[in-house]
Amino acid sequence: MNVSRIALAGGVAASTVLLLAGTASAHVSVQPQGEAAKGGYATVNFKVPNERDDASTVKLEVNFPTDHPLASVSPQPVAGWKIDVTRSKLAKPLEVHGKKIDEAVSKVTWTADSKGIEPGFFQQFPLSVGQLPEDTDQMVFKVLQTYSNKEVVRWIEEPAEGGEEPESPAPVLALSAPAADAHGAPADDKSGEAAKEKTTASSDDTSSSNSDSTARVLGIVGIVVGVAGVAFGVLAGRRRNA
Questions:
Q1: Whole-prediction pTM value?
Q2: How many angstroms separate the CA atoms of 241 and 224, rounded?
Q3: What does the pLDDT average to over 42-67?
Q4: Cα separation of 210 and 64, whole Å?
């Protein structure tokens, strides 16, 4: 009886922990499709869950970091949502592909045309962004989530390094190591030549191996045919003697 009670209490405690963990992790986040390499371009998705039982998410505002402005930001159309892109003047112009850029996207706003994100659902909002900065390991986006009951949730708290996650954390985009160049192409042809040489050597080895295998098979076939011929000759001789 005591064992059953202990097991029941353990199950309830575990369920409570999972419920609390699920509630704590349900917040606006950003993730790249593939990798977001420093100095390159990437497609990122802002994942927005609806955390209310009696209201829908009808508006999302994503504010871009001013310390690492992005010259190129292109939103992908999302059915049922109107998109507004806000650009602002830069205090310090950027140089992209040899051209000076004096303004950058500072905010992208999605506004629902009808229902928005209903309770129990989430929505992803894709953006193509670049060039990503090379002097930082992450980018922090401050986001405002507006519900149909006029409530505004501010996902703007930056996580402290090595500390606990804040109550309303801002979405953080982790940047990976830079590619060979800004577009991910090899920076040196020598690596390509080495790969070609390796491929050629591998092909030669494969051809040589195939030739050896063919020769062995033909040799075995010849031996079998020879043995069959001798056996046939012996059998024919015995028949003539008989």
A1: 0.64
A2: 26
A3: 96
A4: 59
